[in-house]
Write a structure and sequence with these properties.
Blueprint (H helix, E strand, L loop, with lengths): L13 E2 L28 E6 L43 E11 L4 E12 L13 E3 L2 E5 L44 E2 L11 H4 L21 E2 L4 E7 L2 E3 L12 E3 L10 E7 L4 E10 L9 E11 L15 H14 L3 H15 L4 E6 L7 E2 L10 H12 L10 H13 L2 E2 L5 E2 L10 E6 L27 H10 L24 E6 L38 H12 L10 H11 L7 E2 L5 E2 L10 E7 L4 E7 L14 E2 H7 L8 E4 L4 E3 L17 H7 L12 H19 L28 E3 L15 H7 L6 E5 L5 E5 L5 E6 L4 H4 L18 E7 L2 E9 L6 E6 L11 H4 E6 L14 E4 L5 E6 L16 E8 L5 E10 L11 E4 L8 E5 L4 E6 L9 E2 L1 E3 L2 E3 L2 E2 L9 E4 L6 E6 L18 E7 L5 H4 L7 E3 L1 E9 L2 E8 L11 E5 L9 E2 L9 E3 L2 E5 L2 E2 L8 E2 L1 E6 L40 E3 L9 E5 L2 E7 L5 E7 L11 E3 L1
Parallel strand pairs: 2-15, 2-19, 19-20, 26-31, 50-53
Antiparallel strand pairs: 1-54, 3-4, 3-6, 4-5, 5-6, 7-8, 9-12, 10-11, 12-13, 13-14, 15-16, 17-18, 21-23, 22-23, 23-24, 24-25, 26-27, 28-29, 29-30, 30-31, 32-33, 33-34, 34-35, 36-37, 37-38, 38-39, 40-41, 40-64, 41-42, 42-43, 42-46, 44-45, 47-48, 48-49, 49-53, 51-52, 52-60, 55-56, 56-59, 57-58, ...
């Protein structure tokens, strides 16, 4: 069912003065990844970070048995007796080592004790909070890991010690540090220079005795570095296991062949030694005596040694192939940024914050919140970038204290912060961060898992057997703040429920993060929860109470996530943590909406007229394309569609019933996964880079040499491509399934559907050597099509009569994100999200119908297809259909391609596509612009080769500029482009002169030296294509455009928004800049005069009237109207802006405006349809009323605004939409009337009956080209 929004008038809330405050862009745009009009308050995400002493540790092991359990000759092992039959489960590495003590007599360190210790660190660095290990009930002074490798290799493997260097992970600097990569030969122990070294006094506690001769001393900025030459790491091969319940040695030896999922001492492994100029890889195999006196004796044998100085040859066990330099860099970054438990937490928080710019983040720590407590941004902060940067800097600089783990109390403090009950340290309370009634509130609890101390004072909230008495578990605390309304107000329960979380009151959802640790419970079906299924009050493992570090406390964290409708994250690497959290925080409500314009099948209403509308559902991000007929009264019959594309597409066989093609960089290809992904066929299959991008989430590394892993990757890639083609057999809810879709057709948001049937342009027959009239005649009966881009990664071409998909195209430039479409949960992003341009063009001695599509927010690229004959579409002929792709790899000045292309013939004889460079071209993606300037591109229509790039010279890398969709103008009727107009983010309206047959002469129309000058600077962003018309009474053109943007999350606000305007600027075609330049003071000002509600003929409207000031072209260089009512007392700015294409028809300029919803908890917004006199910007004269408001098919004074003679009885200039935010209307001629059909954000279609106008401007010798 469609979400219907009733017409209403927004409460205007921003007071403006008589002068305008111009918007100045201060950074790259924070482009939204979903429709802004969906509404919803930015979610609150509060990080509660464990700052206990154990977070300083650099070891975190999986459950394991000690070395002496396997090896009878291991130190401290005696005979055939079992060493210990219980696994170690406290996260530390229990192995044999040496403790040292200071000898005053000898004035040096001497061996104090040798035995089994729990190791805390892998390096004995001077900034370690504690000494190296723990044994004999005290903390000992132990050597580093180098001294214990000879007894137990496993501590140097990330499969055993999850914090250790993982060769499959990519390590990098913390987000926002600016510190860059670490030096392998001088790697910092702590990457943050502001962190001081630990002092001897800080090391001395009653529990951890430190010798007085501690060499460590405080400094103002810790800079201890280490040369990592000789670094050793191990790669585990699960070659053996054991029979029975635990491993046994000697005469009781129970070693077995084959994998068992446990890192056993007697498993084979690879040892890597990273030196200054080479890396040595050794394969180590364990041999075990099975009989005789030496039965059970383990002997390690190196069976293979390889030293390499370049890329590693044939890396084993699914490792990536890296060069020596890449391995060194990765090791160095791991050492400095991910070696300790706290480092992983800091890095993960930084990455999550950097990748979620629309979230409101706050942060504190368990023990020292007076030293580190960042409240969430106040309600008046809309751009969080600066706030987040300061928060991260404070986090990175926070020194690790010596304290316990009061996890339960910390989670309680987070809940009380959401309630506004936490002390600010100055006698007051910190305000609750909940600023909207629909706001979702999350606490992310980072910990190494083992809580102790600090009774939270919350009892057995969830009813499980282990929460009795006055001491609750973490799961009890989580459930308490989930089930209790955080603001105790039952009248504002507006939180949007979803399938996971049905609560509508304000509540806290908890996401515990526990660094790869597991408890006693198991998830056997990969759905994220234990098996068998447990309830809130079930027994989740054993009793977690007490101070001991035990796996039951990990089960309690899992239980906490379940109780509060969160997710439990247990991940090894910072990448895993970030990916898991981003997935977990991707919750959104379900609504049906539309933001694309309608397409019409004809320009004149007839019996077979069809209206085409695109929609989407944000619950499952499915899309719809409808074909509607008209009712007898010319309204749209939305009750009974002619067809619904999603239903038709779901019924098409994904393998044999669809034609889906792509581009491999040199030619068109079928969209099929290669038969052998390691050796694709260049002529007919995807390229290696495309395959690599598709396999980003494959089960194994793409360059694996293991035959089984290759086979599984092949199966995954084939299944993924089949899924994208529409195969639904692998959809499901398990973590091993692909995402379940509502329909195969993905969401259609910003791509307006375009209808194409018989050619109908009016080129003269002598424009080319082959008659255009003959081309029109030959194609009169070709299959009518509707083309539209969708965020399923494809441009779709549907048969306009039946709804059957005849063509789909997957641009090469979206491959890097295609795998995400199958991920669960799915974080929405754009793919092919701009409207295509479809025009007849001439090349190869023949006429063709060419489609040029753009990605919009989906990427930095455009593509071209030959769609002349839809009956010939096939995968076998893909190369005949695909013409080219143009991306930022072709030219780094191309940004996100929000600019749609125009197609036309140039003065040099070339047929071309012309487009602006779009936005954020300085994004760091390997093809960042070196200038950040606004640029116009002109490329050959057949080949995509760059014909001309015109640089405006305006923009920089810190605040990149961008050019919007251009308008191409032919002023002499020869169908050849003379001028091009386009606006940019800085408010410049540029004119480009391309009249010369010499390409080198094409440039900005007014250029003096290296400086380019615009026709006009509005000081307000221009993000739409201008309309251009011939001046009615004098030479030159009038250029019409509105200002504003609706691209970033901050653009949703109605508060503190700069006033936007609509302009008409007179281009006098002067060559002299002094006489050509136009400034705002030279323009006639029109104003919104009044806004009111009225009922005419039984129909209710919100109406807007405007002034009708006369223009004097001897004094004025154009006109403007600000989108604010200056006659209101007080004057308000409602955030109104003009961000859709305007229409110039019959002496009128027609445009829609957009007003975001002032209530963050309500979706949608509103729009005004404005119709003004194009000549002067005035409201239309009395004899030219635009709207038939009483719907009697007569345009008279009854349709005037007040319909009260003598009382402001004038035609309205604007009507507010009853259907939310609307886009550019589709227009149909109906005899002497016009019908305008407007698709709104509610999903419905408005229609308005309008007059065609009585004004005539005489012969217009200009023509706007497509």
């Amino acid at each position: 069912m469609l979400f219907i929004r009733s017409l209403y008038k927004l409460s205007l809330s921003f007071i403006v003065s008589g002068s305008l405050t111009w918007h100045v862009q201060s950074a790259p745009l924070q482009l939204a990844d979903e429709p802004l009009f969906l509404g919803g308050a930015d979610p609150n995400v509060f990080f509660e970070l464990d700052d206990s002493g154990s977070m300083d540790f650099a070891i975190l092991t999986v459950s394991h048995y000690e070395a002496c359990q396997y090896d009878k000759d291991a130190p401290d092992a005696e005979g055939d007796d079992d060493c210990r039959s219980q696994p170690k489960q406290n996260g530390l590495w229990n192995t044999y080592g040496t403790a040292w003590k200071w000898s005053n007599y000898q004035s040096r360190w001497v061996i104090d004790y040798q035995g089994y210790f729990e190791y805390h660190y892998m390096f004995h660095n001077s900034d370690n909070k504690y000494w190296g290990c723990r044994g004999r009930g005290i903390v000992e002074t132990c050597g580093g890991f180098e001294n214990v490798y000879k007894y137990d290799w496993r501590g140097g493997s990330s499969d055993f010690n999850v914090l250790f260097y993982n060769p499959k992970a990519d390590y990098g600097p913390w987000a926002g540090t600016g510190l860059g990569n670490t030096s392998f030969s001088a790697a910092r122990s702590n990457p943050q220079p502001a962190v001081a070294a630990v002092t001897a006094q800080a090391q001395t506690t009653t529990q951890y005795a430190v010798p007085a001769q501690d060499a460590r001393a405080a400094t103002s900025g810790y800079s201890y570095t280490k040369n990592l030459t000789g670094f050793i790491y191990h790669v585990w091969d699960d070659s053996h296991g054991f029979t029975g319940d635990y491993p046994r040695r000697g005469n009781n030896l129970n070693r077995s062949e084959g994998e068992n999922g446990k890192v056993d001492l007697w498993d084979n492994f690879y040892r890597y030694t990273v030196d200054a100029a080479s890396v040595t890889r050794e394969k180590v195999v364990w041999d075990v005596e099975t009989s005789g006196d030496d039965k059970g004796k383990l002997t390690a044998e190196v069976t293979e040694t390889i030293t390499f100085t370049g890329a590693e040859p044939n890396p084993p066990l699914g490792q990536p192939s890296r060069t020596v330099a890449e391995i060194q860099q990765n090791v160095a970054n791991w050492y400095s940024y991910a070696r300790r438990r706290a480092f992983v937490a800091k890095g993960a928080i930084g990455a999550v914050v950097a990748s979620n710019t629309s979230f409101r983040f706050g942060l504190t720590v368990l023990n020292n919140d007076e030293d580190l407590f960042h409240e969430m941004p106040s309600a008046d902060i809309k751009n969080y970038q600066g706030y987040n940067t300061q928060m991260l800097n404070d986090l990175y600089s926070f020194p690790q204290p010596d304290a316990g783990t009061p996890l339960r109390l910390g989670l309680k403090n987070a809940g009380e912060y959401f309630k506004g009950n936490v002390s600010d340290g100055n006698g007051g309370r910190r305000p609750s961060p909940i600023i909207e009634s629909c706001q979702q509130n999350f606490t992310v609890l980072f910990t190494d898992g083992y809580w102790n101390k600090a009774d939270p004072g919350i009892g057995n909230e969830d009813g499980d057997p282990f929460g009795g008495g006055g001491s609750g578990t973490v799961s009890d605390v989580a459930y308490y703040y989930y089930k209790h309304d955080l603001d105790n107000d039952a009248t504002n329960n507006n939180v949007i429920p979803n399938d996971t979380d049905p609560a509508t009151y304000q509540h806290m959802v908890t996401f515990p993060v526990a660094f790869g640790l597991t408890g006693t419970l198991e998830d056997t079906d990969s759905d994220g929860w234990p098996n068998p299924v447990l309830s809130i009050s079930s027994t989740w493992g054993g009793d977690p109470s007490g101070t001991a570090d035990k796996p039951e406390k990990i089960d309690d964290l899992w239980h906490a996530a379940y109780n509060s409708k969160g997710e439990f994250v247990s991940a090894k690497t910072p990448e895993d943590v970030v990916d898991s959290l981003v997935d977990a925080l991707s919750e959104i409500s379900s609504r049906d909406s539309s933001s694309a314009s309608v397409a019409t099948s004809t320009g004149q209403i007839s019996s077979d007229t069809a209206i085409f509308q695109a929609q989407f559902n944000s619950g499952d991000w499915s899309g719809q394309l409808y074909s509607y007929s008209l009712n007898a009264d010319r309204t749209v019959n939305q009750t009974t569609p002619n067809w619904q594309a999603s239903d038709v597409l779901d019924a098409q066989n994904p393998n044999t019933g669809r034609t889906i093609i792509s581009y491999n960089g040199s030619r068109g290809i079928p969209f099929r996964f290669p038969a052998n992904y390691r050796s694709p066929v260049a002529a007919t299959e995807m390229g290696s880079a495309m395959i690599s991008e598709l396999l980003s989430s494959a089960p194994f590394l793409i360059n694996t040499t293991d035959s089984i892993e290759i086979s599984e990757n092949q199966a995954y890639g084939t299944a993924l491509v089949n899924y994208l083609r529409g195969d639904r057999t692998n959809e499901g809810v398990s973590s091993t399934d692909f995402r379940a879709r509502g329909s195969v057709l993905g969401d259609i948001i910003s791509s307006d559907p375009k209808y194409v049937s018989a050619p109908r342009l009016t080129y003269s027959d002598d424009i080319e050597s082959v008659s255009y009239a003959a081309f029109r005649s030959a194609n009169q009966n070709r299959i009518p099509m509707v083309y539209v881009g969708a965020n399923d990664g494809m441009l779709h071409g549907f048969d306009a009569t039946t709804g059957r998909e005849r063509l789909a195209y997957v641009p090469k430039s979206v491959y890097k994100n295609l795998y995400q479409l199958s991920e669960t949960p799915y974080n929405h992003r754009y793919f092919v999200d701009a409207a295509p341009t479809i025009v007849d063009a001439f090349y190869d001695s023949a006429w063709h119908t060419v489609l040029v599509g753009a990605l919009g927010g989906g990427g930095q690229g455009l593509f071209a297809l030959d769609v002349t004959n839809p009956s010939q579409f096939s995968e076998a002929s893909a190369n005949n259909t695909v013409l080219w792709e143009f991306t930022d790899a072709n030219d780094a000045d191309l940004g996100y391609s929000f600019s749609e292309a125009s197609i036309a013939k140039m003065a040099n004889g070339d047929w071309v596509a012309v487009f602006g460079n779009g936005y954020n071209n300085t994004e760091v993606d390997g093809y960042a612009s070196a200038t950040g300037r606004a640029v116009l591109f002109i490329v050959n229509i057949k080949t995509g080769a760059l014909v001309k790039k015109i640089d405006t010279g305006v923009g920089d890398t810190a605040t990149p500029n961008g050019l919007a969709t251009p308008a191409l103008i032919d002023i002499n009727g020869d169908s050849v482009v003379d001028y091009i107009y386009a606006g940019d983010l800085r408010g410049n309206m540029w004119k480009f002169n391309v009249q010369s047959p010499m390409v080198a002469d094409w440039d900005v129309a007014w250029t003096s030296g290296s400086t380019k000058h615009p026709l006009f600077n509005a000081g307000q962003p221009i993000t739409t294509q201008p309309s251009v018309g011939h001046h009615q009474s004098v030479r030159g053109q009038l250029v019409y455009f509105g200002t504003g943007k609706y691209l970033e999350y901050s653009d949703r606000s109605v508060n503190s928004q700069p006033t936007q305007s609509f302009y008409a600027i007179w281009d006098k075609n002067e060559t002299d800049l002094t006489s050509a330049a136009v400034v705002r003071n030279d323009l006639l000002q029109q104003e919104i005069q009044d806004e009111f509600s009225t009922t005419i003929g039984g129909y209710s409207y919100n109406i807007r009237t405007t002034t009708r000031n006369a223009i004097d072209w001897s004094d004025h260089d154009g006109w403007y109207i600000d989108l604010v009512n200056y006659n209101d007392i007080p004057v308000f700015n409602s955030g109104e802006r003009q961000v859709t294409e305007s229409l110039l028809r019959n002496g009128r300029i027609i445009f829609t405006t957009l007003i975001p919803n002032g209530d963050a908890c309500s979706p949608g917004g509103s729009s005004w349809l404005m119709e003004l006199e194009a000549y002067s910007g005035a409201g239309l004269p009395d004899i030219d009323t635009p709207f038939d408001l009483d719907r009697n098919n007569v345009f008279d004074d009854v349709d005037h605004s007040y319909n009260v003679p003598g009382v402001n009885d004038i035609p309205p200039s604007g009507v507010e939409s009853s259907n939310g935010i609307v886009t550019t209307p589709g227009v149909l001629r109906d005899g002497t009337q016009e019908r305008k059909y407007l698709s709104g954000s509610s999903g419905s279609i408005d229609d308005l009956v309008e007059s065609t106008g009585v004004q005539f401007f005489g012969r217009q010798s200009w023509r706007e080209l497509d």
